[in-house]
Amino acid sequence: LRERGLADRVIGIGRRPTSLRAARRAGAVTSTTVDLAKGVAEAALVVVCSPVGCIVDHVRRAAEHCRPSTLITDAGSTKQAIVRAVDGSLSRGCRFLGSHPLAGSEKTGPANARADLFEDRVVILTPTRNTSTEDFHLLERFWTRLGSSIVRMSPEDHDRALAVTSHLPHAVAVALSACLPEDYFRLTGTGFLDTSRVAAGDPELWKQIFLQNRENSLSAIDRFEEHLDALRRALSDGDAEALENLLTTAKNNRDALGN
Amino acid sequence: LRERGLADRVIGIGRRPTSLRAARRAGAVTSTTVDLAKGVAEAALVVVCSPVGCIVDHVRRAAEHCRPSTLITDAGSTKQAIVRAVDGSLSRGCRFLGSHPLAGSEKTGPANARADLFEDRVVILTPTRNTSTEDFHLLERFWTRLGSSIVRMSPEDHDRALAVTSHLPHAVAVALSACLPEDYFRLTGTGFLDTSRVAAGDPELWKQIFLQNRENSLSAIDRFEEHLDALRRALSDGDAEALENLLTTAKNNRDALGN
What we know:
By secondary structure, the first copy, chain A, is mainly alpha-helical.
């Protein structure tokens, strides 16, 4: 926002003064506070970036202290439980419209802040029938001016899709990383490193994401296991053709995704 | 070799004149030929870099045409089948000592050549009781002068370990990539991209690797599935503690591996 000159004031609200200081030093915010009520008091837009398990509470508290009729959004990796809890029920005419920017990495904290984080990324917006066109367009402009393109989905469709595109790869990376015996650590190459990278993400954050998207995550794991079993069977049968077909399907999909 | 001034002549042998031309243009080789017999005729060391399914044949043919008593090595991702086929049985006093540099990526061909490919990497050497100390030291010097460090393993131990550290992540990335429906392609972020990256590798190459290391790969997949099932069970039971323990084990392992 600051680098693109889209906001005169960016107020960072957090619990830890050290993190807030780091955010100021990184130039990510113009002022900071540990007091949520004070922080949101004059905001034109509130963006809640807490772990998914805290978002509902933080949205509600923000609504109680910001200017009447303020739009509140988030950056959470799950949407259904959050939207269901706060959609159309916030105090003082405030509204919530869910955002999920598909950006970021396994790294956390202001030390890893990047001004180009949202460039060429997708941001999913999850409006409901309570969402006004005006609010949708406001958030659409907000994210597109940061360099992202918008995909519009229902909270239910979002959680079903992200279970496959985000929560599943995390589950897979976690199982892969957890199954590595220590005496093999030195024998890993770029293949293992890439495939397991996201497992370095914050366990607390990811625990909340999985628990909030439990059913969809389980279905996604089932879906994955069917494909791994097909590969296992081809290998077990020594079926070179079936094996090559699977490897080729995977390559075609992966090539289509780009870098 | 050329950048570090370790060899006056590097002879590239291949099937496709276009690839050989590209290798010359990249500065990777000083001369090229499509004729294996001519190419190896004056070599002090022969490095066979074919797909694993062709290595045995190429090693045998090289032994028939190079100077008597020449040392031959390879860069194959499997070792047991290859070493068993050529160890101590090459013509004209030639010897084979297996190498596996844990370097490279999903990209192939001379267009992706990098002079620093082996810097800070591990190269596994797989000597047998037929291997002379002299030959071992020759290859040890060869790879360490290219910037790698050496790990010595039996061909059997190599294949068991690499099934977990390399062939398993490939299988996992393939199943993940193959299970992605096309309408979700645009909803993938860095997590999916990292976790599935190696699935872009050459299907023909990987088919041969899996078939050559079938039993170990199956055991590695079983090992992985046990851990994925544990995660699935924790999630299905809503067992937050078990889930967090698994996520933490995975993070600790992954953090220990570095970038």
